[in-house]
Amino acid sequence: MTTTVEAPPQGKQAPVARRPALQTDRVLAAIGKHSILIALGIMFLAPFAFVTLTALMSSDQALTSQLWPRSWHPENFVEAFQKAPLFRYLVNTLFYSVLGTLFMLLSSIPAAYALARLQWRGRGISLVAVLCVMMLPPQVTVVPVFLLWANADLTGTLWPLIIPMLLGDAFSIFLLRQFLVTIPTEYTDAARVDGCSEWQVMLRVILPMAKPAVAAAAMFQFFYCWNDYYGPLLYTNHERDNWTLSIGLATFRNLHQVEWNLVMAATLLVLLPVLVVFFLAQKAFVQGVTMTGVKG
Amino acid sequence: MFRKSSVAVRSTGWRQFRTAAGFMWPAWLGIAVFFVYPLIATVYFSFHQFDMLTIPKWFGLGNYEYLFVDVRLHAAAYNTLWLVVVMVPVKVLASLGVALLLAKLKRTASFWRAVFYLPALIPPVASTVAFVFLFNPGTGAVNTVLRWVGIEGPLWFNDPNLAKPSLVLLAVWGLGDWMIILLAAVLDVPQERHEAAQLDGANALQRFRHVTLPGISPVLLFTALVGVIQTLQYFTQAAVAGTVASGQATVGQGRTKEFGYPADSTLTYPMWLYDTGFSQFALGYASALAVVLFVFSLLFTVILLRRFRAYAAEGSVQ
């Protein structure tokens, strides 16, 4: 199904444009060319529409198979907050995401700098170690790590997920490193000749040039924390006060016996911030994905 | 004289190392405490029997012997293997298909790219809850639409035979990140090669087969390998889908008894590891499961790291 679309001979302009065509002709031709895309696009966007429509239905109608709300109930979004302590979960999620991201930047930017811009023995093996940590499933090390935090009496809180960010995040180090190696050495050589220390070179020369990569790494980390389910489930399962939105949402329907309209309202509340940030910073995002070939 | 210079080289080497260490020590500490130590400890624990309250007691190969009689483990291993064999190729092919469609666009490219990338951003818990609702057998939007065209839709997430295929649909919906990687690779294939092939009279299919495919194959392989490693960790979507579809409350009360609903068809390997370790607190046995998982993921990681050089050389950075 992949290459069935008729490929116009590769000139810079499509040859059809030569003829002084009617506007409707050209629109129809464009639709024909785009028809597979449009059909697929509708299928990809339809879930958003159905979720939104259900979130605005009355509780009774949400039990039926009707797709269009008979009456509109924006108050569902408020009611969702009353059924479960979503606000509490939101605060916890923000606590995890914001601190996690800040700590990650603090520890991972210097590490990426050393791996990308400094010449030293052991650099190769350090990079391989970072890649291994990035690739191997967290479940492989979960038992001893959990016991560490249990001994520190920090299970039941989100700290076991936040504190390690002070010690570098493998994916972020790799992402930043991939960007930093592309900056030409002339810039840093000039600064070194002027007598800058490596820390000054990093902070004054490299960091301003690496803003898009830092933005991408920060965004990936923030979303990783915001979306994380496994980590909070592992450490806060029995401590409901410390639950995050992802656990709250996963248990929302079953624990609180609520109707689908409220579940969908809560679902929208969880995914909305991600969409807003994405539309504000689409370019940095796409760059980050292509730069590493992996998403965190 | 010769000696002197070699000492000088060594001392600059040492100075360089010290400078680098100033930047790297937090990461080194992190790798040591949260990776190297736990890796060794997991192997050690896997020969022991203990829970949160007892100290490890030597158990020999007992945990590993139990792997062969643990029926739920066999279900979980089968499901994870199924996902690796089915979900990864389906998602790679779907991503490639969308990437090829988008590669031909000019003015509308960024719009369509956003459309297909969007679902990949949605928090997995949110997208899974939404999918279980949309595919719910009685009143869900999918079966409602199918009814319009006269088809009585299946039970989807509530049918042991269809729960995993439903998860594949969810994965295809979230193909955005792989699609973007493959799109970048497709666009990287030099236009001259297409033109040369066209002069030789190659049709679209032949050009795909002999120009595009060889050009993107390193990236394609890289994506598939990353996909396999990610699928070995597949946890969230399966756990949430089973929980929500079952309609039972499961977390917050100890046992994760609805994991795998329906009929263990969505129980994955990491879920069983989580359940044995942190619901049943059979920590020695969970460590043995972790060692087995480590062996398999290491295998793919080694292949991946070998391919990594080829991939990096292929110019993934603009």
CA radius of gyration of chain B: 25 Å
Query: Strand share of the residues of chain B?
Result: under 5%
Point out poorly predicted stretches of chain A: 1-18
Biggest interface goes to: A-B, 110 and 116 residues
The CATH superfamily of the largest domain in chain B is known as MetI-like
CATH topology of the largest domain in chain B: MetI-like fold
The name of the CATH superfamily of the largest domain in chain A reads MetI-like
Notes on the protein architecture:
The complex is a heterodimer of chains A (296) and B (318). Chain A is built from 15 helices and no strands. With 296 residues, chain A is an all-alpha fold. Chain B folds into 2 domains: 2-45; 71-313, Orthogonal Bundle (MetI-like fold), CATH 1.10.3720. Chain B contains 13 helices and 2 strands. A two-stranded antiparallel ribbon of chain B has the order 1-2. At the A-B interface, helix 1, helix 4, helix 5, helix 6 and helix 8 of A face helix 1, helix 3, helix 4, helix 5 and helix 6 of B.
Quick structural gist:
Chain A has helices spanning 23-55, 59-62, 76-83, 86-117, 123-135, 142-151, 159-162, 170-180, 185-193, 198-209, 211-227, 230-236, 245-256, 260-280, 282-292.
